[in-house]
Design a protein that fits this description.
single chain; 135 residues; alpha+beta; Glutaredoxin; five-stranded mixed sheet; binds FE2/S2 (inorganic) cluster
Amino acid sequence: MGQKTSHKITVCTSCKHKGTTCKPGFELIDKLRTAIAQAGDAIPEDFEISGVACMAGCDHPCTVAYYGSHKATYLFGDIDPASDIDDLVDFAKQYAYLHDGWCSSVDRPGKLRKSTLARVPASMIAMELTEEAVH
Ligand code: FES
C-alpha cells in the first residue's frame, strides 16, 4: 500500500474582524468544510479542517494555513468567510495536485495571490538542499 499524503487546513479561531469582537474563524471553518465536501472528487485528496487559537498573523484576520506531508506550507491572511471560500476551495484543488506543494503567487487563485503571509518549503526539501550544499 502506498504512502498517503495527509492534507490539512488550519483556521485561526481567535482572529477578530477589525474593530469588532466578532471571531469569524468558526464561520469560516463551517463554510469551508461544507464547500470542500460539496466539491467531492474534484479535490483528489482529503483535507482535515481544524481551528487553532492563533498563528501570529493577528494583523491580517482571518489567517488560514495549508500543509501536507512533504509539501510546502502556506499561511494566508485577510481571509473573509463572506467572500473568499471559493478561492480557498480552488487552492485546495490546486494544492492536492502539487507534489511538493510549491507554486508562485501568480498561479494561486483570486485573493490568495496577494494575501500570502508565508510560504515555507517542506522540511525534507530544505534538509536535502542543505546536505547538498555541504557535499
Ligand atoms: S488571532 Fe488570529 S492569527 Fe493571531
